[in-house]
Amino acid sequence: MPPTQPWSPSPEAASWDYSGSGSGALEEELELCAPWELPYARVFVPTLYLAAFAVGLLGNGLVLRLLARRRGPRRLADTFVLHLAAADLGLVLTLPLWATAAAWGDRWPFGLALCKLSGFALTASRCAGALLLAGLAADRYLAVARPPGARPLRSPRCARTLCRGAWAAALPVGLHALVSRDLQPRPEGPGSLCGERPSDSLQALGLLLLLLTCALPLGATFFCYCRLARRLRGPRRLGRAPAAPLRIVCAVEGAFVGSWLPFSTLSVIRHLAHLGAVPLTCRLLWALRWGLTIATCLAFGHSCANPLIYLLLDRSFRVRAWRLVHRRSLASSSSGDPAGSWGRAHTESPAAAGPA
């Protein structure tokens, strides 16, 4: 197929999986277009996945430990943060599988069950994260704007109900991955690929779910922050606003949008191309594949972003993390260690334990 000839997928063509790799007859189409491969993809993609796994496992585990065992009343935002860490951890646990498949040229050696479960965990985690961030944005707007009747909505019970609702909506979305995921033969050699079945109905359903679970929560988040920006317009309102929590929430929201929006946009184009709605030239087809590979690395890297944001911007989180690390170091060191005595005095000082 010449590089300038428009391409539209055949009914047998399979779609890319969420790791950004090609699969099935679509790979054969790509081989006919051009022999290009993303340079060093088998090296940098697994490396990025494993780095995100290491940082995300430690960081999200730390967030869960600190917030789940926190004494006293918990801030409403902490409820959303706790569930966000759980969603990110669900994605993090699948990264070694995707890293192995990427290092082996997209060959999936883990069987059908893990193929389906990995797709389920990835889809459900992404959906839950988007819905939880929308709830967090709404909570910040209500906290600053304080419209009439907002007090009952900002209760711990309401926050827990919203988080449970986000998971309840994410689980059925993840079931689509359980149905659509399958092992398919690799066109260029032995082994199998973990990808979606080449079905127009599944492609259309996947496109609909992607729009519902990405576009709608992001639209609600954008609406809340537009209203919040209007409320904060003016020096008096800005002076009363909790600047530090808003800065943290904006950073978390921005990291999610910057990480997942490129992947979601390219995934919409991929679904439309497989449905024949968007004909692609061979050059555009390869650009789409390269873009999905890079966008998937960015999306997977988001699983370790939130704990880093908390460490950088949330002073109270840094203090609690330091206390936890210091207690563990004291348990393995002698009680007469001068460094341990200094650390204990530092962490117990009122200035170090002030609110963010």
Automatic annotation (TrEMBL):
Residue span of region Disordered:
1-20, 331-356
The reply on keyword NAD is: no
InterPro entries according to UniProt: CCR1-9-like (IPR050119), GPCR_Rhodpsn (IPR000276), GPCR_Rhodpsn_7TM (IPR017452)
The record's Gene Ontology biological-process terms are: calcium-mediated signaling; cell chemotaxis; immune response; positive regulation of cytosolic calcium ion concentration
- State where the protein is found: Membrane
Which GO terms of the molecular function aspect are on file?
C-C chemokine binding; C-C chemokine receptor activity
Alphabetically list the UniProt keywords.
G-protein coupled receptor, Membrane, Receptor, Transducer, Transmembrane, Transmembrane helix
What are the TM regions of this chain, as residue ranges? 48-68, 80-99, 201-225, 246-269, 289-313
Where does the protein principally reside? membrane
What PANTHER family does the record tag this protein with? CELL ADHESION MOLECULE, G PROTEIN-COUPLED RECEPTOR 25
UniProt record similarity statement: Belongs to the G-protein coupled receptor 1 family.
Name of the molecule in the record: G protein-coupled receptor 25
Report the gene name.
GPR25
